[in-house]
Amino acid sequence: MDADDIVSDLADLTHVPIAELISIDHPLLAKALQRAVEEAKDSAGVVAGFQAAL
Amino acid sequence: MLSPGFRQPSEESWPAVGLDVQLLRQEGWQAQPFRQFVLKLHSRCNLSCNYCYVYEMADQSWRDKPVRISPEMLRLTALRIAEHVTAHDLSEVQIVLHGGEPLLCGAPFIDAAARLLRSVISPAANVSIRLQTNGTLLTADMLAVLLEHDIKVGVSLDGTARSHDARRGYASGQGSYRRVSSALRRLAADPYSSIFAGILCTIDISADPVATYESFLEFSPPRLDFLLPHANWSTPPAEAAAVQYGEWLIAAFDRWYGHNGSGTRVRLFEEIIHLLLGGQSGSEMIGISPVALIVIDTDGSMEQVDTLKSAFAGAPGTGLNVTSNIFDEAMDHPSIVARQIGVAALSDRCLACPVHKVCGGGYYPHRYRAGDGFRNPSVYCEGLRGLIEHIGRRVRADLLGRR
């Protein structure tokens, strides 16, 4: 699995509402998403950030 | 004006040579004011840790420093910080009381220092005070002073008694685990838990990573951080290859992440996840966020992060001193600037790497190579990349699996 595959897999997540993204059933990741969303202001920014980082 | 007798470090390499600060400014780059002041209260330590960057590595400047900062120097430092805060309209600064071992100053001195720092700086900005200690001198008197001044305490502990005592002992050879663990139990309980900042662990590669992580949980630290032993391309990691450190951290991450982080927060792992999600790093260890930190030694000298002492003698020096310089002068020092320019400080090899915005080239002192300076990947590059990609895969799987 390389970075391109990951970016492709995640592409549709940019359309997921913030509330749904943060309600993920994984408390640690939910907290991390909450922090990232607060910085990025929206879930699209978070996922775009994730794509850019990989 | 440079301090009398100061000689620039002999290393004529990047960033001392090749980073044109004036040009950067002409192009519109702006330095970040300092927001974190690491204040060395005491230059000696009561432990003799075998990997210590202050006493056991390239730089031996501690021998020429005053044992303890004088009240006059402390007051002057506080005034300089207040001046910097006012000039840059900062609403908040952090002061980290450091050493050597800062608690060797004794409780009355710490009490007076905290009062002085707050009385001089607080009118201009909120002051949070932290203290990093080896934990051997956290007596009842000391804890009472720290609590009174809301000084958050970080303690160095290297895992199990076996790991810790093999590395963090007294000069006599006796280990310090028993005393440190006893202090940690006091710190973790009321009324002191509010000032317990966390535990710093330098990785013992010969120890089991899961057992190491779990050994901390009995102390309920609010936060834990794993540090890679200080090394660089000219003095590589002595005990194992970089990739093995990555594997060690991956095992610790899987234990932590697999239990939803329920035991404690782990700064390195949280920062990597945050950076993977596009955030800004809150740690100088990883990422490309500007580092706005300066060290003031017991003689008033302004220095860069003192873990640079692991690179070469004089590496942290700026030639500036609070007696005759203001902090703004240090903001023009090439090595300070190098840590504030993001990807522009990275090597070509880093820039070609897909995870460079997450790792940020790794910890700055770990990038050093004699002859060409700090524009290199971290000597732990291979291990860091493995760790970041592993965390990326775990986070990705969970993000996709939520649907």
Layout: helices, strands, pairs:
The complex is a heterodimer of chains A (54) and B (403).
Chain A (H helix, E strand, L loop, with lengths): L2 H8 L7 H5 L4 H14 L2 H11 L1
Chain B lengths: L20 H6 L9 E5 L30 H17 L4 E7 L8 H15 L4 E8 L6 H9 L3 E5 L4 H7 L9 H12 L7 E7 L6 H9 L5 E5 L14 H17 L6 E2 H10 L16 E4 L4 E3 L13 E5 L5 H4 L3 H5 L9 H4 L4 H4 L21 H21 L2
Parallel strand pairs in B: 1-2, 1-8, 2-3, 3-4, 4-5, 5-6, 6-7
Antiparallel strand pairs in B: 8-9, 9-10
Helix pairs in contact in B: 2-3, 3-4, 7-8, 8-14, 9-14
Give the termini separation of chain A. Answer: 11 Å
Return Rg of chain B in Å: 21 Å
Most extensive interface between two protein chains, with residue counts: A-B, 29 and 25 residues
CATH fold assignment of chain B: TIM Barrel
Q: What would you call the shape of chain A?
A: globular
Tell me the number of structural domains of chain A: 1
Rg estimate of chain A, integer Å: 11 Å
The proportion of residues forming helix of chain B, as a percent range, comes to: 25-40%
Oligomeric description of these chains: heterodimer
Biggest pleated-sheet summary of chain B:
10 strands, mixed
Total count of helical runs of at least 4 residues of chain A: 4
Characterize the structure shown:
The complex is a heterodimer of chains A (54) and B (403). Chain A is mostly helical. Chain A is built from 4 helices and no strands. Chain A has helices spanning 3-10, 18-22, 27-40, 43-53. The longest helix of chain A is centred in the middle third of the chain and has 14 residues, at 27-40. Chain A is globular, with a radius of gyration of 11 Å. Chain B has helices at 21-26, 71-87, 107-121, 140-148, 161-167, 177-188, 209-217, 242-258, 267-276, 327-330, 334-338, 348-351, 356-359, 381-401; strands at residues 36-40, 92-98, 126-133, 152-156, 196-202, 223-227, 265-266, 293-296, 301-303, 317-321. Chain B has a 10-stranded mixed beta sheet. In chain B, 49% of the residues are buried. The model of chain B has no long low-confidence stretch (mean pLDDT 93). The interface between A and B is medium-sized, with 29 and 25 residues.
